[in-house]
Specification:
With about 190 residues, the chain is mainly α. It is built from nine helices and two strands; from the N terminus they run αααββαααααα.
Length: about 190
């Protein structure tokens, strides 16, 4: 059965902004607070389960821990086949990685090393995709909240932007230095 308006907005006929505002003021009931959490959870679930966006995440060892519906559709694997079982390298075709490196070398007019640079050249969109929902949530909280909620929203936004910078610039720099220093023939995952 398809979701109804009440699945996303559990307070009958209420504007979600009104529910959020009412849940933060004095006299807010536990029911209102729970309704706000339900709305936020439904929106987060709708974004994560969207078939239009691929979301794949790994643990520190590189084993896939998150594989949403969009990733299933895009790559042709089910979550049950990949979760806690394989790494992204296991579902990557080495010839495709090499071909992509060659195409990027031509496009960017600079030599691209397959496997390292290919991943970083296009990583920005993935990193932004992974953090954009947090930034949207921070903007909503900042605009609708008061006092400590606005402070939390600002702190969240600064943290997300710092995370994006670290993922794009610092991690790439550290990896480049390591590769130039040790020149490994292969990188264990």
């Amino acid at each position: 059965m398809p979701p109804t308006k009440n699945d996303y907005f559990p307070v009958d006929g209420a504007d979600p902004r009104e529910v959020l505002a009412a849940s933060q003021g004095e006299g807010a009931t536990d029911t209102r607070r729970q309704d706000t959490l339900l709305i936020a959870g439904a929106l987060q679930s709708a974004i994560f389960n969207s078939a239009n966006f691929s979301s794949i995440a790994t643990d520190a060892k590189g084993v896939i821990q998150i594989f949403n519906v969009g990733a299933e559709r895009m790559l042709g694997f089910t979550a049950a086949e990949v979760l806690n079982k394989i790494t992204p390298a296991d579902i990557s075709d080495p010839s495709e990685v090499i071909a992509r490196a060659e195409a990027l070398s031509i496009e960017l007019d600079t030599p691209i090393t397959p496997g390292f640079e290919v991943g970083y050249e296009m990583a920005m969109s993935t990193i932004v995709d992974a953090n954009v929902t947090h930034l949207v949530a921070a903007m909503v909280m900042f605009n609708l909240g008061e006092g400590p909620v606005r402070g939390f929203a600002l702190t969240l936004a600064i943290g997300v932007l710092t995370s994006i910078f670290t993922a794009v610039v610092v991690a790439r720099w550290i990896m480049a230095v390591w590769l130039k220093t040790f020149r490994p023939k292969w990188i264990p995952i």
